[in-house]
Specification:
The chain is mainly alpha-helical. The chain has helices spanning 6-15, 57-68, 71-77, 93-119, 127-142, 152-165, 171-184, 192-220, 233-247, 253-263, 275-286, 296-305, 316-333, 353-361, 364-370, 375-404, 409-426, and strands at 19-26, 29-37, 43-51.
């Protein structure tokens, strides 16, 4: 934990716009002089009396300075016998008074800033937090402009100064962490081209991370429209299907990715790694119940509706036998009638085989009722169709989650490592 020092206090006073001098120690007290010009240019000097061995007492000293400051009294020090300003002060008394009130307000702000600084000084930062603060400062200072080589070093120093000297926490600790980060991204010399290349890359990656975090937040809030212009027609269909599914469910892609990790079978862990492991884990998850569970009929219907699979288990030749039966009934009875259970066809007369086939394709119940078919053959074809749909469903879910970048590869690798550790131990290695 960082400990506040007098150097930190002096640096903070400097950041607040004061010139600091004349540090003196006397018994249990420690003091310094601070100086700042008023808005009208008057030289204002004060002494801070603090407690020795207690840098945090600077906040209390500034508070006492502010509470004891009287703008009226200070104004009279700048007024001459004629009732007007002297020694460079504004001519009118009212202007001098306003200037001293501005000094009073500045002391109040300094007191508040110093209080916040000392109370929050011992906050520890991680390198990730410093990285985020630095890159956000870069974006705030430079905006959306391209980082030019002639400005890169100055821009970096300006952002670094903001991170180190503004806000809470120890400037020393923040400086150390920031220096480590800058070395990691390749800033190890004073060459403008090095700064430019490193900063452009870092800002670009940060913007991608921000976009990714926003996407994850959208996932949590079920506001999903994840299609992108560069996607293929199949990818668009996949994303629209799962966007709709998640938007109408109580879960979301981020939570579902956690479910996949937890439900991932142990068997593939020792056989597959990387994306192959995720493929198997997703395939297992979508077929193991739990979140987003659907039976085969629901899944097939959803994928057919999305245009991702097409009914390929019907034997086209079977339509012909159905039509032959239809023609036989027509010859025997003249028009369709209830005597042969053609009730649905009462208002439909099909003059040719194509019209009859199109009609029956829209109504699978009629197709089964009126045609001659091999039930065993059809059941086999339907099973194959469902198996195909199940495999594609797992494949498409993996594609979707991978596109959204919500699969936790670090957690996957830990799971694999834990499995292999236990596996090796059980074999006596």
């Amino acid at each position: 934990m960082a400990k506040l020092t007098w150097d930190d206090v002096e640096q903070k006073l400097t950041d607040l716009g004061f010139t600091v001098s004349n540090w003196q120690s006397n018994g249990n007290s420690y003091s310094c002089d601070i100086q700042k010009y008023s808005p009208a240019g008057q030289d204002c000097n004060f002494t801070l009396d603090m407690e020795k061995d207690n840098p945090a007492s600077a906040a209390k000293a500034l508070d006492e300075l502010y509470e004891n400051y009287d703008p009226d009294e200070e104004t009279m020090l700048w007024i001459g016998p004629d009732g007007h300003g002297k020694n460079g002060a504004p001519h009118h008394m009212s202007d001098v008074l306003n200037d001293m009130k501005a000094v009073e307000k500045d002391l109040e702000n300094a007191r508040d800033d110093m209080t916040y600084f000392v109370e929050n000084f011992d906050i520890d930062f991680s390198k990730e937090e410093i990285k985020s603060k630095f890159l956000n400062a870069m974006i705030q200072i430079n905006g959306s402009e391209t980082i030019e080589e002639k400005h890169a070093i100055g821009l970096c120093k300006q952002a670094a100064d903001y991170v180190i000297n503004k806000g809470v926490g120890s400037p020393k600790q923040k400086k150390e962490l920031l220096n480590e980060y800058l070395k990691e991204i390749g800033i190890t010399d004073g060459k403008p081209e090095t700064y430019t290349k490193a900063l452009v890359k870092a800002v670009s990656e940060n913007q991608k991370e921000i976009a990714h975090e926003k996407m994850k937040e959208d996932c949590r809030n079920h506001v999903l429209v994840t299609t992108k212009p560069a996607m293929s027609s199949t990818e668009v269909k996949v994303h629209r299907m799962f966007d709709s599914l998640f938007n109408n469910s109580e879960t979301n892609p981020v939570e579902y990715a956690s479910f996949v990790l937890a439900a991932g079978p142990d068997a593939p862990v020792n056989q597959y790694k990387g994306e192959k492991w995720w493929e198997k884990a997703v395939e297992h998850a979508v077929n193991s119940g739990g979140e987003l569970w659907q039976d085969s009929t629901e899944r097939v219907h959803m994928m057919e509706k999305a245009g991702l699979i097409h009914n390929d288990y019907e034997d086209p030749s079977l339509y012909g036998s159905c039509y032959d039966t239809y023609k036989t009934y027509m010859k025997e009875y003249g028009t369709p009638g209830d005597t042969v259970n053609f009730t649905t066809f009462v208002e439909e007369i099909f003059p040719n085989k194509n019209d009859m086939t199109k009609y029956l394709q829209l109504d699978q119940t009629l197709l089964r009722e009126y045609r001659k078919f091999d039930e065993d053959k059809e059941d086999h074809l339907i099973d194959q169709y469902i198996d195909k749909a199940d495999k594609l469903y797992g494949k498409y879910m993996h594609m979707y989650l991978k596109d959204l970048d919500v699969l936790d590869n670090k957690a996957r690798d830990r799971k694999i490592a834990d499995y292999e550790k236990k596996h090796d131990a059980s074999r006596g290695r």
